[in-house]
Amino acid sequence: MEVKSIVVNEFGAPEVMRLVERQIPEVSPDQVLVKIEAIGVNPVECYIRSGKYAALPALPYTPGTDGAGYVHATGSNVQGIKTGQRVYLYGSLSGTYAEYSLCAPTQVYPLPERISYPQGAALGVPYFTAWRALFHKGKATAGETVLVHGASGGVGTAVVQMARAAGLTVIGSAGTDAGRDLVLAQGAHFAINHSDTAKVLELTSGNGPDLIIEMLANVNLQSDLQIIAKQGRIVVVGNRGQIEIDPRLMMSKEISVNGVTLTASSALDLKTMHSAIQAGMEMSVLNPIIDKSFSLEQAPEAHTYIMEANSAGKVVLIP
Ligand code: NAP
Predict the structure, then answer these.
(1) Total-model pTM
(2) Residue 309: pLDDT above 90?
(3) 58 phi, psi to nearest 5 deg
(4) From atom 25 of ligand 1, which residue's Cα is the shortest distance away?
(5) Considering the domain boundaries, does residue 274 fall inside one?
């Protein structure tokens, strides 16, 4: 049977992603073949496709680590995963920008009935990153105040939902009125413009937030250091360049700055993150938000769209 997938033969502009037809992948004994119903598009896939990323795949390759669908076939050694089961993916052996994706059993997670396939495709990288940033690295605690600096995108909306459910006071930033409305609808107590640091101080009685989850550190790290509370924690999730900072602020306020690399997560970290996300979905606390859907062949348009401003949740492809 011929099936469709995106293939990248050379690094470059979004148009290097080509839709091709090829034979449906064969499942080896330790693999799972998933019929993909929706694919999550992440900024990192744009960096990789452009060739400007530290770790690049061998060419040709099919992009994507996130997706949702149902199990089409399992290898003879695979246990605990059934044909027909609804699943979401964090990771894939053959890439998720495709109608069918080969996975290791550890890359396949059960998808609750109440979560649609496009919502399931929004879970992997964004929700796992949100959990790692907020709890593993940020040590978020009920009663604290968090600034989600970049709260309107795939990761930011997830952080807002998790932080609110965990009992923090949540301030989220977005670049547009529609983005700020979305941030409030996800549970933030306050929504601000990205650069409105004066408002953050006003909302925290001049003390600043205890924790900042930062989506664009090359723009905001210095102002984060200026506004954060004494002994505050800054967690860098996103960064697209360099910035000059005054380290004296870290010293005088005893600020910690931590980075997140989702791919550094251990098997135990992944188990923790999935378990928490699963419970949040089952209890209706976590609800992935879809901004815009594109067809699989529109992958180049989806990459152009996600790198523009004005986020309102997650961008997905529907094969
Ligand atoms: P996304 O859906 O494209 O969202 C981007 C977010 O950045 C939006 O909320 C956007 O807000 C916001 N933003 C734009 N200008 C900003 C500014 N000046 N200050 C603060 N925020 C600003 O992307 P995503 O999937 O949420 O990922 C966010 C970032 O984290 C990306 O850079 C991504 O590469 C990175 N990331 C890193 C890891 C890791 O392991 N470290 C994992 C996942 C993602 P508006 O559009 O409303 O302006």
Answers:
(1) 0.98
(2) no
(3) -70, 145
(4) 154
(5) no
